[in-house]
Design brief:
The protein is mainly beta. The protein is 4% helix and 41% strand. The chain has one helix spanning 28-33, and strands spanning 2-7, 15-22, 42-46, 59-63, 70-75, 80-82, 85-92, 95-100, 102-106, 110-115, 122-124, 155-157, 159-162. The strands form four sheets. It has a four-stranded antiparallel beta sheet with strand order 3-2-1-4, with no helix packed on it. A four-stranded antiparallel beta sheet has the order 9-10-5-13, with no helix packed on it. A three-stranded antiparallel beta sheet has the order 6-7-8, with no helix packed on it. A hairpin with a 2-residue loop joins strand 7 and strand 8.
Length: 165
Amino acid sequence: MPANVKVDAFPDRVFHGKLAKIGILPDGQSAQLNPDLKMYKCELECDFSDVVIRPGMSCDVELVKDSFEKVMYCPMQCVTRIDGVPHVYVRVGDEWTPRKVEVGLDNNRMIHLVSGVSVGDTIMMAPPVKESNEPSAATPGAENLQKEPPLRRRPHPVRQKTQPQ
C-alpha cells in the first residue's frame, strides 16, 4: 500500500514509500491511555537518501488506499441514511428535498459522492430538524418560554476535486 510521509523537520517535502509490515497484535502501551483505541506497529519502506532522518523525529503518514482524479465529495455530516439508504438534502427552488446518492470511500471527514448529485447542486450540511410547536411535558415551564425563530443551516456547495494519480 503506498504511503505519503511528511516529516516535521522538512515541512515543504512529501516523501513517498510503501507499507511493508503491520503488527499482528495491537500495541499494549497505547491501550493504557485509551482502551478503545487499537494501535498497531507498522514498518514503512521510504527513500530518505537525500535528507538526514534521526530517531525521535515526528512525522505524519498517510496511507493511500485508493486515489481518484475527478471526484465529487462533501463533508460526512451531509450524508444521512433514510431506511438504511444514503441521502443528501438538495435545494430545489426554495425547498430542501432528500435525494438518494451512491457513496464511495471516505476519510472520516469527506465522502465520495459517486452518483445522485451534480456539480453546482447545493446540499445541506446536516439533515433538517423537525420543529415542534407543542411545549414538551418533560420540560417544566416550557409553556412560558418565548418562541425563537428557527435556526437556518448554511448550504454547502458540492465541489469537484482533481487529484494526481
